[in-house]
Amino acid sequence: MRLTKHHGLGNDFLVLLDLDAARPVTGPVARDLCDRRRGVGADGLLRVTAGSTMGDGGTDVTMQLFNADGGRAEMSGNGISCLAQAVVLAGIVDGPSVTVATDAGRRTVRIEATPQPSVHHATVDMGSAKVGDDEPEWIERDVLRAGRVDVGNPHLVLHVPELESDDALVQRGRRINDLVPGGINVELVMTGPGPGALTMQVYERGVGLTEACGTGACAVAAAAEQWGLAATNVRVHQPGGPAEIVLGATIQMTVPVVHVATVDVAR
Fold first, then answer.
1. pTM above the 0.90 mark?
2. Could you tell me what percent of the chain has a pLDDT over 90?
3. What CA–CA distance (Å, rounded) separates 173 from 203?
4. Given 3.10.310.10, 3.10.450.50, 3.30.70.20, 3.90.25.10, which CATH number is that of 130-249?
């Protein structure tokens, strides 16, 4: 099995190109490959199969997304950026536009080269965000406001005056995931640094702490705009670096994406 490894802002993924559908992936296989001590190591695994001819114009490829624990996920902003880089580098799609069928619907990625061959800039049309009503049951300790956001996958956004330690976020994330059927991505967001910017931490369901989350950045930007904390163009700072988010009829997210390695797995 040959994989490529990529990351977007430190949110790393293994990509399996399987256009002839010869290598089906199970949850346990994905979990083993993502294991950082006994496998290759990643936040998730992306299996790329042939495009879809169904729906609005079809797609170049289809994405199957597994979290590090082997569970399936609907969508990943950094993941689909890594996928787009992988298929362009492999010559499967010429680019710069890559259309992808995902469990959250059809998505389009614009992938642009940089002077570094291993680095591209990816702008993803992330679809629309559905910001729910406030959910006061999540307001505790230092939480100022809370609400769910659907960007093709579920998020709980918690507005806080300041971020917390990794250990505290892990405890909070695990507890919330135990209470929410099917699990949920949990983001803490505060305003700044500087006017119009946001800073967030994320606990991803099926993964845990990650350095960045593309759908999470979109979720906090959408919630913050509705709450009057940010405008429609916002930079969302994360431990792995900032994502540029533009809100509109659909959300546009721009991040750098890096090809790290090509790996032959003995299986």
1. yes
2. 94
3. 6
4. 3.10.310.10
